[in-house]
C-alpha cells in the first residue's frame, strides 16, 4: 500500500494505534491518506464494517468508496463511507427507539420545516420570516441547545419568541415522528451521551473512524465523533485550517484547537508537498492566505514546475465575463493537441445565482456542462411529490407528506375537508393519517369526503405493504410503474402544465428518478461499464427511507465529459486541470464587507473574521487548479436592482505580489499580432522577398 505515498503520508497511514491528526495545506494528499488508510486497516485485519470514513458530501463518499475499492477490491464495499448526516440516519434508525422514535421516521426538508414553523407560530407569519427562524433554530441546534436552553440564553425578546416557537416546533416533530437535518447529528449525540448501552455498542463496533475535511465540522459533530471513538480515540482526522469555509453554518476551528487538549496522545502529522498545482498557482494561493492569522505554521511546495502565469481577465458585465470564460476554454482546447477534455475545466463562483450567464454562454457555444452545488434534482416539484408519497408510506404520521401526497395528484379532496381533518386531528392529538379511521371523524367531515379519505388511507396502507415486500431492482421497477399508473401521475403533470414540453420534461425526470430508485434496491444491476454485478437486495421501503437525505443528484452522476459550473463551497476537496474563478470583484469576493450604504463602519471583530473566511474561500478556489488558473472580474456589478461601478477584488492584487500575473485581453493580443504582422510585412517589403 506504499505505492504513491511520501514518507509523511506513509506515517499517517501506518499509525493506527491512537488518535492521529493530519494537518496540511490544499492538495497535499490528505484525502489520499484517508483512502489508503482504509486499505491499510483492512490489510491489518480490521473488518471492513468496523471502519467508518466520514466525508463532507455524498459525492465525496461515493468517490472515496470507489478509490478504496480500486486499492483493495470488493472488501472495501462494507466500509461505512458516508457523511455525518448519513451516519446519523443509520444510528437513529437502529437505535432511535430509545428516544421514542419509530425506525421508520421521516426526514424533513427545508420547506417542510418552514411550513411547520409557520404553523407552530399560529399561522400568522409569512414564509420568509419562518425561514429566518429556521436559520436561528438550526444554529441553536448545532450548538447543542434544546428549546429550553435556547430560551434561557436568548438575548432579547425577538430571540425569546423564536425559542418559544422552537418548543412548539419540536413538539410537532415528535408528533409527526419526524426529524430535521440538524437532528441527524443531535439525536445520535443524545443517543450516545445518555444511553450507555447504545454508546458501548457503537464504540465496540467501530474500530477506526476517519474524518475528511475536519476543519469544517461543527461543535455537535465533534462531540459525536468523541463519543463514537471513546477513550481509546482510534481515529484519523485530516484537515486544513486555511480551508474552513463553513463558519456561517456553525463550523468551528475550535475543533482543531481542542484535539491536542482532548487527546494528549494525539499524533500530529504535517504534509508539505503539494501534488496538485504548479508553483505559480500555489504562490498565488499562499499570497492570498498569507494575511490570515496562523493556527499552525505550514509550508507548502510543489515540484510540478512554475507553469503558466495566473491570468487576470477583466470584463464589462457578467455577460461579457461569461463570453470571455467560454473563449478561454475554447482557446485552451485549440492550443493543445490533443485538446483537453471538457471535464478538465471548471468555472467557479461564489453564489448559485451567478451561474446563469455562464450557462447561457456555454449553451450558445454548444459546450456540455453541469451545474453542481446548485439547484438539485431533488428540489424539483415532481420529485418532491413522489418523495412525499414515500415518506407517507414509511411514516403515516408525517403530516406535511400527507398533505402533499393527498393533493398531488388531486383526488377531489378539497382544502375545506383537509382543514376540517387537520382541526379534528389536532383536537384528538393524532396525526392526520391517524385521524382518518377515528370513529368520530364522520361527525367532522361530509360523507362523500369521508369516503375519499378512507380510500386514500387504505391505498397508502396497501402501498406500504407492497413496498415492504418488494425486493430488488426488477420488482421495484414494476412496483413504481404500477403505482404511477394507479395514481395517474403522468396525466396530472400534463394537466398542471400549460406547456407540453415542460410536462414531458417533468415526466422524464420522474422516470429517471424511479429507475434510479429501483437500481438502489439492488439485486442484479449493471454498473457504469454495463457489466452485471450482484448487490444486496433491499426492500423498496428501505430505499425510500434514505431518499430524503440525498440532496443532490451528484451521487449518481457518472463521470461525464462536461465543463463543471460550481460554487466555491461545493468545489471543496475537488481538482481540475483548468480553473476559471469568476466574479472576483470587490463586493462579491470578498462579499460586501463594508456597509452597503457606504457608511463608514468601524472594522469590528466580526468584519475581520468575515474577511478571514472570505480569504479562505478564495484560497480554496485557487487551490482547485492543477495547471492553469484565470481569475476574472467585472467593471460593473449588480447591487440590488442597480448596476454600480466596481473594482477588481483586493485578492487579485494580493495574488500578484512577487509574481508575474499576465493580464489577458484578447484585444491587446490582437493588436500585438497585427503589429507583428505589419512589422514583418514591412521587413519583407524592404528586403524585397515576396510575402507568403
Ligand atoms: P484538499 O485540501 O484540496 O482536499 P488534499 O490534501 O485532500 O486536498 P488530495 O486530493 O488527496 O489532497 O491530493 C491532491 C492530488 O495529489 C490528487 O490528485 C492526488 O492523487 C495527488 N497526490 C497526493 N499524494 C500524492 C503522492 N504521494 N504522489 C503522487 N500524487 C499524489
Ligand atoms: Mg481533500
Automatic annotation (TrEMBL):
It comes from the Bacteria. ATP binds at residues 24-31, 276. PANTHER family: ATP-DEPENDENT DNA HELICASE REP (PTHR11070:SF64), UVRD / RECB / PCRA DNA HELICASE FAMILY MEMBER (PTHR11070). Transmembrane segments: none annotated. Keywords: ATP-binding, DNA replication, DNA-binding, Helicase, Hydrolase, Isomerase, Nucleotide-binding. It holds the Pfam family UvrD-helicase. It catalyses: Couples ATP hydrolysis with the unwinding of duplex DNA by translocating in the 3'-5' direction; ATP + H2O = ADP + phosphate + H(+). Gene3D superfamilies: 1.10.10.160, P-loop containing nucleotide triphosphate hydrolases, PCRA, domain 4. InterPro entries: DExx_box_DNA_helicase_dom_sf, DNA_helicase_UvrD-like_C, DNA_helicase_UvrD/REP, Helicase_Rep, P-loop_NTPase, UvrD-like_ATP-bd. The gene is rep. Belongs to the helicase family. UvrD subfamily. This is ATP-dependent DNA helicase Rep. Homodimer. Its EC number is 5.6.2.4.
